[in-house]
Structures are given as C-alpha cells and as structure tokens.
Specification:
The chain is of the alpha+beta class. It has helices at residues 9-16, 20-33, and strands spanning 4-6, 43-44, 51-56, 59-66, 71-79.
C-alpha cells in the first residue's frame, strides 16, 4: 500500500532554498511518507480537510492525503515561523 508523492513546483522551490543538511533530513521524511502517510508525530490540521503536518526540527511539512487515489500532495515546507501564513 504505497502512496505516490506529488511535489508541486512551488514546494520544490521551497526545498531548493533550504540548507543541504536540512534538505536531506526533510527528503528522508518525505520518502517515509509513501509507506506511512500518517506517521507517529503527524498532526491533522484543524479547519482543513485531509491536511496534515509533520515536524522536522525547526521546519514543518504540510501535506494533503487522498486515500482514494493513494496520493500525497505536498503543500508547504518552511520554517515553523513562516509555514502557517
């Protein structure tokens, strides 16, 4: 039951701007999402249907899960002070 991960162009730009060490940590977590879309520590965001976030150090990765199509769509990946704007 592996999910496909969709990385929109805007999210890829956000990832490209990150320091290399942070980028590698986030990339590792993104890969793990394909097997477990709701890992321990993930949090469902209130007020938004099927949107979750995981914490990776000082960064947050927001994503939506479509269980019917088995797709994870990345929404934002930014520093914790900027991700909810």
């Amino acid at each position: 039951m592996s999910y496909s991960i969709v990385v929109p162009k805007s999210v890829q730009k956000q990832l490209d701007k990150l320091p290399e060490q942070v980028y590698q940590r986030i990339l590792k977590k993104i890969r793990l999402l394909s097997d477990e879309p709701r890992p321990p520590g993930s949090l469902k965001l209130k007020g938004v249907e099927a949107e979750y976030r995981i914490r990776i150090g000082d960064y947050r990765l927001r994503y939506k899960i479509d269980d019917d199509k088995q797709i994870i769509i990345l929404g934002r990946c930014k520093h914790r002070r900027d991700v909810y704007e």
